[in-house]
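Lab channel / #folding
Pinned by the channel admin:
"Please post every new chain as: sequence first, then the structure tokens as a reply. Keep commentary short and put observations after the output so the thread stays searchable."

First post following the new format, from NK:
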Amino acid sequence: MKRNKLIWQPDRSKYPEHDSNGKPIVDLKSQKFTKLWQGPNHPGVTGNMSLELTLSGDEVVEAKTHVGYLHRGFEKLMERRTYMQCFPTSIRMCVAEPDSNEYVLSAAVEELSGIEVPETAQWLRMLALEMARLQVLLRVVPGIASTLSLGLGSQWGMYMREHILDRFEELTGGRIYHMYILPGGVRGQLPDGFKKRMLENLDMIDGFIKRIEDLIFSNNVFKKRTVGVGILKPEWVDQFGVVGPPARGAGFKRDVRKDYPYLKYNEIDFDPFMATDSDIYTRAIVRKQDLIMTVDIIRQILDKIPNDKEIRAKTPNVLHLEIPKGEVYARSESSRGEYGMYIVSDGSKYPRRVNLRGPSYTHAVALLEKMLINANISDVHAIMVSLQTCPPEIER
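Reply from TO:
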């Protein structure tokens, strides 16, 4: 595909007369524009999407998100499968953090069926969810700097993440997809020595956090490229349904674990970090604090898991599980924010309707297109990554 060749005249009515600093923008009536496509060019994160950018010089005057390069039709596939057959499909709606899908699907089935989950299983579910958050943040926190060519932190983070994947493999038998959380509870107890090895890994991550503080967050180049860049205006938070770190970075203290407590989170001492500057740097700081908080939460969970061996409620044959008629919305707090699943049951073995509520759709389509107007083209990728997109959530 030829790039930077197509001349484009955008609709002037869509753009503000001045940028966020009050500086007049180019005259859209007379100026000619260049169209540029960014991506899809690499796997993972934002690489499964494409941005159609309209430029005036190196300034973005219009941005359109294009998807369709990845998986599609997950929700309809689930509506043609039994509830247990839905699990291998649901976890692929966010490969980076599949455990959230396991939990919201299980929680929805349990609420419709009136299944009570044993206390020990609730603690083990929390452990799996926080481990999933931890391995995501180990990749994402330094990953923002990688968009600005500072890749060393990501290499350190991926090394740390491998240790958490080792613990997942030990606990569940899988490194990426786990299928550990199922209706009624979980699949197994903690292996012998798991707690000791997990605590050793957490001590290593404490050292990693100190190193990236020096490498990234005290780095003047990183600060100059991120402070005051990619501003998410507070009035956009409710308008676009912004959740998670982007919302907390804009002064909105939103966390499902606090707002709508589930499992045993009301027995854990934690306070989600909040800031107000709402730029790329602030969102990176919020996620770094989330990383510190997640390490602390996992330590608390390991101390509080009961010795009770009951980890699964008695359920009918799950291969022929018929769910009573009704509808339910189950939610959790993923590393990206509120993550929920809406299910309608008609009383059969198959869900009548499945709908996923993932943060990526609003963050990476409507919000991103708004935020990129007047941005410099060199900042586009950093702004995208600072919103932490999981494209399969969009193409569900």
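NK: Residues 1-69+359-396 form a domain with the Enolase-like; domain 1 fold (CATH 3.30.390).
TO: also worth noting, Residues 1-15 have pLDDT under 50 and may be disordered.
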